[in-house]
Recover the amino acids of this structure.
């Protein structure tokens, strides 16, 4: 069977393997292969691999299979992985308990199973969880060489956006001033600083800000991170004309904060604006709102119109990468 591999020299093999493992990109169903001076590492998602690495397709040798939850259950359960936790979304309590028991008995490297007990709610977008296995809702998640501690019951975090975060972080240049208006535990801030940026992260959730500070320490970038617990609209005047890059990842209501974004933007600033809109016109409302807020003080250029994922039937989660240049 032909599968995607990352090809690297033997000298770079272990470093690359660790980077791919931290990003959860290694396909454990196949063996790592060696040919001559090259090492071939199987990957699950070639599109998520850094552009600095070479991806190729070649024949693969299957690994001896490990016991999976599906092997024990007789059906393939739906779940997400986050660190050493498995996240379920099961309405049937008996089925949820059955899946949790199989997860723990399987060879998956996890020790916590959580089941969603509510929808995302409130200003901080958190949800309730039922602990089916393990001690609590705190996890440590690794993503593209960064490490994030967080409590799922206290903060919002989506592992599904890892590839999107990496896409944006890859654009950051050494010495940039970056401002995350809704920073959470730092999934944008931390990789920005690891690429040489100086970052400000603001959030109304005080627990998220405490985790942001902890994660800055964990990743060795605390000296270049300012974490602020406040409404960004109150903070914006303190950072007038400061930012080279702004992240606005608050779909559904980011447009309410565009005036503050314009205040924070420097002479030449890229804004990553996230929105959720109907598939008939997913980018138009956001683009019109940005132009209304920024013009005539800035020339507005839309660099990228990107669909991040499907959000609901006929609704898309999208991103506009927009350049603001002082007119």
């Amino acid at each position: 069977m032909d599968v995607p591999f990352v090809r690297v020299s033997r000298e770079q093999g272990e470093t690359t393997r660790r980077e791919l493992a931290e990003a959860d990109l290694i396909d454990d169903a196949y063996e790592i292969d060696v040919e001559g001076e090259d090492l071939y590492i199987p990957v699950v998602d070639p599109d998520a691999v850094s552009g600095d690495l070479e991806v190729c397709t070649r024949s693969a040798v299957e690994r001896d299979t490990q016991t999976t939850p599906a092997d024990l259950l007789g059906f393939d359960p739906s779940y997400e992985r986050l660190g050493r936790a498995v996240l379920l979304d099961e309405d049937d309590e008996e089925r949820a308990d059955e899946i949790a028991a199989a997860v723990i008995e399987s060879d998956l490297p996890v020790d916590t199973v959580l089941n969603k007990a509510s929808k995302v709610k409130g200003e901080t977008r958190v949800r309730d969880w039922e602990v089916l296995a393990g001690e609590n809702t705190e996890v440590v998640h690794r993503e593209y060489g960064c490490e994030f501690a967080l409590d799922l019951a206290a903060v919002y975090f989506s592992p599904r956006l890892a590839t999107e975060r990496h896409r944006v972080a890859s654009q950051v240049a050494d010495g940039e001033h970056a401002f995350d208006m809704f920073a959470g535990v730092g999934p944008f801030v931390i990789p920005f600083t690891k690429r040489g940026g100086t970052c400000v992260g603001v959030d109304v959730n005080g627990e998220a800000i405490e985790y942001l500070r902890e994660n800055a320490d964990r990743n060795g970038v605390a000296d270049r991170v300012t974490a602020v617990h406040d409404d960004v609209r109150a903070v914006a005047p303190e950072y007038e004309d400061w930012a080279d890059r702004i992240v606005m990842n608050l779909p559904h209501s980011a447009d309410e904060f565009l005036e503050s974004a314009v205040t924070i933007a420097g002479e030449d600033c890229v804004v990553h604006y996230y929105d959720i809109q109907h598939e008939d016109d997913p980018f138009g409302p956001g683009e019109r709102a940005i132009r209304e807020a920024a013009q005539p003080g800035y020339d507005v250029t839309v660099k990228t119109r990107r669909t991040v994922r499907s959000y609901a039937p006929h609704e898309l989660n999208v991103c506009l990468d927009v350049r603001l240049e002082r007119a």
Remarks:
- The two ends are 56 Å apart (CA to CA).
- The chain is about 25% helix and 35% strand.
- The chain has three domains: 2-59, 69-136, 156-326.
